[in-house]
Structure formats: structure tokens, C-alpha cells
């Protein structure tokens, strides 16, 4: 669907918020805390951004976009090209990071731009009178995004960890020291940050099904030197398509006129999920569960590869 950019705000030196509304003033499709939207960029890319505002607000979506020095063309395009009044194409909201229905108390951890889905969760928890603690980790005070909202609406829940300020440091070990069956932990931010929080939680015997996180970027992909050649067989036609070491499955298929819908191209969003009929994939995604990986019945061809010489796909 198409929406219009109503406003743009500089939240930090490299994070901007974008307020999106319908062109005719009607309500937008509903969403739940932790949802994201796909944004179609003018340079041919599609990228995902979490909705940061409260799900009770029907008239707009607010997203936060970090202009990443290592951008693959998404965030830099948005920062440099998007203007107030622009008409852009987005998807309806999807939620891969929901608030668990049995959450009676929550611990929210955000690192940097990871504040966006966590902020939406905070809004929902507050509305539903579910107690929560809110921890935000940044490098310095100028890096705090949505600071006015955090201090005005969540003054009782928010705690800042500011790396260059000795007066604003948090003891994660202490915070996570007492696991309770009513508590759920939600984390979003850089992969290293999320791994650290999860490691500390596991140290204190938090149950796995009480730990929830969302990825913005995948872990570093294997280099081409680690890749091996293999072939993909199209079940419906029997066509055998070779996959080079420096080529993804979706790239090879597209060159042969077989298109699979892709979005993140990192195995995060699940857009490209494809059924496997024969062969064993080498899973490199962060979308599927361990059980789904073990079944080898489905995989993400945008980033995953094959352990067997031939992988037969249900295409």
C-alpha cells in the first residue's frame, strides 16, 4: 500500500524518525507491539523497520532509521532521499517479535536503534498495566533516541546505561539474577549486545521460552572461500541449476527466470521461505527455530546453502 511521509525528526546525529500516514486520512492497518513493515525503496531494495509507536494509535506509524556506516543501500537511501510529503510504498505490518501472551512482568533491553520495537512494547505493557523494567544502552547521551518520550511517559520504568558516563552504568548480572516464571525478557539491538544479555540470562537459569529477541542484521556471513558449489533442482521441471561459490540461490534462480520473493536478503524476515523435497540445506538464517532447522523441510534460499550436491526445491 502507499503512504505519505507526514514528518521527519532528527532523534540523534544519525537516527531519524519518520511518521507515516495514509494519503486519504483513514486509519492504517492495525498492528501489535513488536511489528515491522517492509519499505520499498526507489533503488530497488526492500527493507524492514520496526514500528515504534503505540499500537492503539491507528492514524500513523512511526519508524526510526539509523544511517549505518555499513549500510547496504537501505538506511543511507532513506536518510538522503526521503522527504516530508513523499509518497512511498510499504507492506502491512507483520509481527515476528510479539509480546508473549503469558507475560505478567517484563524486562525490556534495548541497544542503540534496537529501541524501536522495544518502545512499542513499553507502550503496550503500560496500557495493559503489566509491570516492566526498561533498560536502554547507548554509547553517549547524544545517542538516546526518543528521549523526550522515554523521560515523559516511562520515567518510572526507564534506566539508561551510558557507556561514557560512569554515573549511568547498569549491572546486568544483578538485573537478571532472579528468574521468575512470570517474567519474560525482550531484547533488541546489535547482535553482540543481544548475545551478551542472553548469555547473562542463561547464566542465571532463565528458561529458553522466556527469552525473546529480534535481529536487525544477520551475523557475519561466511566468506566465499568457505562456500562450496552445488546444484538446485526444480521439482516441477527437473531443471538443474548450478550455484557458484559467490552466488546466492535466489540470485542464481533469478538469472534462470525463477523468481522467489525476497526482502531482507539476510535470513531474518522469512519472506523467501521455500520447501525442500530432497537434500540437506546448510541453514544460515535467524528466522527458523532449531526444530525447523533440524527438520530440513524448509529454508531461506536468500542466504542459506546446501550440504549435499543437489537440493531439490518445491518450485
TrEMBL record:
Residues 228-315 form the 2Fe-2S ferredoxin-type domain. SUPFAM superfamilies: 2Fe-2S ferredoxin-like, Ferredoxin reductase-like, C-terminal NADP-linked domain, Riboflavin synthase domain-like. Residues 1-100 form the FAD-binding FR-type domain. CDD domains: fer2, PDR_like. Pfam families: Fer2, NAD_binding_1. Coiled coil: none annotated. Its EC number is 1.-.-.-. Keywords: 2Fe-2S, Dioxygenase, Flavoprotein, Iron, Iron-sulfur, Metal-binding, Oxidoreductase. The keyword Disulfide bond does not apply. Transmembrane segments: none annotated. It is an enzyme of class 1 (oxidoreductase). One of its GO terms (molecular function) is dioxygenase activity. This is Phthalate dioxygenase reductase. It comes from Acinetobacter stercoris.
Amino acid at each position: 500500500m502507499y503512504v505519505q511521509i507526514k514528518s521527519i525528526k532528527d532523534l540523534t546525529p544519525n537516527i531519524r524518525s519518520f511518521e507515516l500516514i495514509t494519503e486519504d486520512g483513514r486509519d492504517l492497518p492495525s498492528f501489535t507491539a513488536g511489528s515491522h513493515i517492509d519499505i520499498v525503496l526507489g533503488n530497488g531494495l526492500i527493507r524492514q523497520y520496526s514500528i515504534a509507536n503505540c499500537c492503539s494509535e491507528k492514524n500513523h506509524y512511526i519508524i526510526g532509521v539509523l544511517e549505518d556506516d555499513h549500510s547496504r543501500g537501505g538506511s543511507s537511501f532513506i536518510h538522503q532521499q526521503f522527504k516530508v510529503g513523499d509518497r512511498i510504498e510499504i507492506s502491512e505490518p507483520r509481527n515476528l517479535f510479539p509480546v508473549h501472551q503469558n507475560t505478567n512482568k517484563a524486562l525490556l533491553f534495548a541497544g542503540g536503534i534496537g529501541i524501536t520495537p522495544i518502545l512499542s512494547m513499553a507502550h503496550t505493557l503500560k496500557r495493559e498495566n503489566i509491570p516492566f523494567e526498561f533498560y536502554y544502552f547507548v554509547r553517549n547521551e547524544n545517542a538516546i533516541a526518543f528521549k523526550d518520550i522515554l523521560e515523559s511517559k516511562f520515567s518510572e520504568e526507564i534506566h539508561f546505561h551510558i557507556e561514557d558516563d560512569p554515573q549511568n552504568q547498569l549491572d546486568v548480572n544483578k538485573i537478571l539474577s532472579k528468574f521468575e516464571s512470570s517474567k519474560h525478557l525482550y531484547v533488541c539491538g546489535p547482535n553482540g549486545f543481544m548475545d551478551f544479555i542472553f548469555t547473562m540470562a542463561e547464566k542465571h537459569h532463565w528458561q529458553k521460552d522466556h527469552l525473546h529477541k529480534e535481529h536487525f542484521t544477520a551475523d557475519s556471513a561466511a566468506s566465499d572461500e568457505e562456500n562450496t558449489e552445488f546444484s538446485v533442482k526444480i521439482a516441477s521441471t527437473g531443471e538443474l541449476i548450478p550455484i557458484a561459490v559467490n552466488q546466492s540461490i535466489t540470485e542464481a534462480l533469478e538469472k534462470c527466470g525463477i523468481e522467489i520473493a525476497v526482502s531482507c536478503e539476510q535470513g531474518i524476515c522469512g519472506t523467501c521461505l521455500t520447501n525442500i523435497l530432497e537434500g540437506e540445506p546448510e541453514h544460515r538464517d535467524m528466522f527458523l527455530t532449531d526444530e525447523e532447522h533440524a527438520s530440513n523441510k524448509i529454508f531461506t534460499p536468500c542466504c542459506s546453502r546446501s550440504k549435499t550436491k543437489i537440493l531439490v526445491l518445491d518450485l
